[in-house]
Design a protein that fits this description.
The complex is a heterodimer. By secondary structure, chain A is an all-alpha fold. Chain A is built from 13 helices and no strands. Helix content of chain B is 20%, strand content 27%. Chain B contains 6 helices and 11 strands. In chain B, helix 2 runs parallel beside helix 4. In chain B, the strands form 2 sheets. Chain B has an 8-stranded mixed β-sheet with strand order 5-6-7-3-9-10-11-8, sandwiched between helices. Chain B has a 3-stranded antiparallel β-sheet with strand order 2-1-4, covered by helices on one side. In chain B, helix 5 links the parallel strand 6 and strand 7. The chains are: A mainly alpha, B alpha/beta. At the A-B interface, helix 8, helix 9 and helix 12 of A face helix 2 of B.
Amino acid sequence: MSFFAALFDPSMPFVRNAFMASLLSSLLFGVLGSVVTVKRIAGLAGSISHAVLGGIGLALFLDARNIIPGLPPIVGALVFAILAAALIGVVSLKAKQREDTVINAIWAIGMSIGIIFIAKTPGYADPMSYLFGNILLVTSGDLYMLAALDVIVVILAWRFYPQIEASAFDEEFAKTRGVKTDVVFLVLLAITAVSVVLLQTFVGIVMVIAMLTLPTGIAGYFAKNLRGMMLLSTIFSFVFSFVGLSLSWQLDLPSGAVVVLVAGVAFLAVSGAKIKHRA
Amino acid sequence: MNHNVAIRFTDVGFSHREAVVLEHASFHVHAGEFVTLVGPNGAGKTTILRLIMGLANPAYGSIEVFGAIPRSVIMEIGYVPQYMNYDQAFPISVEEVIRMGMLRGAGRDNMKVPVSEIEAALGKVGIADLVNRPYAALSGGQRRRVLVARALAGNPRLLILDEPTANMDKGSEQMLFSVLGELKGKATIMMATHDTGFVSALSDVVLCVGEREGEEHGIVRHASIPADHVSPNAHAEPLIRVLHDTELPDNACCCDDGFSGKAPAADAGAAGSAKGGQQ
C-alpha cells in the first residue's frame, strides 16, 4: 500500500496522526529553529535534548519497579529538560566562560543516566526508539500538546518579534533600548526544553537538533529577514517530513532517520550549489 | 549648574574579574557638550561607556546621567558600538536595523513606523537608498553609517559612539562628522577614540583614560589646541591636538574666566592647572 493510500485509509489512524505530527512539528521546527539558529544556541538545544534521555530512563525505571506506577516517560523527560535548561541558563548568564563545559557535561550526564536506568529497568525497553523516535507511535494526546505549543510559540514569536530579533542581532544594543534580553533568553530556553520533549516523539532525541537547524540553514540562504526565515524553514520542514515519511513507509525504514537524511541531503545540496555559485 | 550636567562620575571604581579598570574616577560633562574620550586600546574607554549606559555597575562611587541612575534614562541614550559580534548569516535588512533603534522595551510600535521615516533616518548619513539592502551585503563603512543612523533613530539626548571611525572610509568619516556637527549643541555627544594625539575639532572636552603615571585607572581632563600644522586634506575633518601635559581640574568648565579647555596655541602650557607633566 502506498503512503497516500494509507493516509486516507480509515483503518490506519496512526498514519494520519503521523502526518498531522509532521505538519504541527514543522511549525515548531521552523519558528523555534529560526530563533535558535540566529541566537546561536543550537548547542544548548542539543544538550537539553540529549539530557532528556535521563528523564525518560528514570521514568521507565520508576514505573517498571512500581516505585511510581504509571509514570509516563514524557513526564521524566519534561523534568530533565527543564532542569537542564535552568542549569544552562544560569551558567550562561552568570559564568559565560564555563558555558561550553557545562553544556557538554549535561549532554553526557543526561544520556548516561538514561542508559543506566534503561539497563536496570525490568522487561524490555529499547533506548533506540527514544533516540531516533517513531512518528507512527504518535498519539492524539501528543497532537493536542503539539498544537497547543504551536499556538503559544507563534503568539510569542509575533508579539515579541522585535525583542527577539534585537537580542539575537545585537544583544548589547537591545539592552540599551530597554529590552530584557536575559528574560528573552530564559523564556527561549524554557520553550526549547518543552518543545524538544514533544518533538523527540517524532524524530527522536538525536534528530531533534538536526531538524531545528537544517531546514533553517537552508532558509537562511534565501530569507531576507527573520520572519522570512521562520516561514521558509516551516515550509522546508514540512516538505522534508512529508517526503521522509513517505519514503520510510515505502522502503520500510525508520521514519525519523529518513526525515533527517532527506533534510541533511537537501541542506548539503543547497549549500554546495550556493558555494559553487559564489566561486 | 547641576541641572545642566549630563554625566557625572563621582569617585567611581570598576574591576573586570581581577583587573582594575577604574579607580576613584571623577568627571562631569554638561548637556550639549561634545566630549572626546581618549585612551590607548584596553585603557577602559568601552567600560566607561558601558557604565554610562548602565550595562555595567560600578564597584563603588556613583554615576548620574541627566541627574538619574543610568538605567532609568537608558531610552534617552543612542549607542554606536565599537564592533558587533555579528553573524554574517543573520538575515536582516537595513530597514530592520534602523527599526531596532526605535524599539522601546517590550513594545512593538517600531514595527509600525512608516518606511519614509526609516529612509529619513538613513538620509541623515547619506544612505537612504540602501533601505532595502541586506545588512550583510554592505561594506564596512556603510555598516558603520547604518549603526550611526540606528542610534540617531531614537532621537537621543545623549549619543555615545565607541570608536565610530573604525573601518570607515574617508567619505563616511566626513559624513559622520558633518552629522555630529549638526547635532552638536542639541544633544550631548560622547565619542571614544584610541587616537590619543589628535581629536575632532568639534570637541569641547577631552577626557583621557589610563594616562597618568601612578594613577593609570583615573580619568583626567586635558587641554587642547588647534592643530594648524596638520594638512586639512590628510584627514576627514578638522583636528585639535590634545595637550597631555596640561591637565585641567574637573571644574574647569565652571570657572568664572570661562575657560573651556581649548587653550590658545601660544600659552597653552600655562592655561591649565598644570598638575600633569608626566606625559
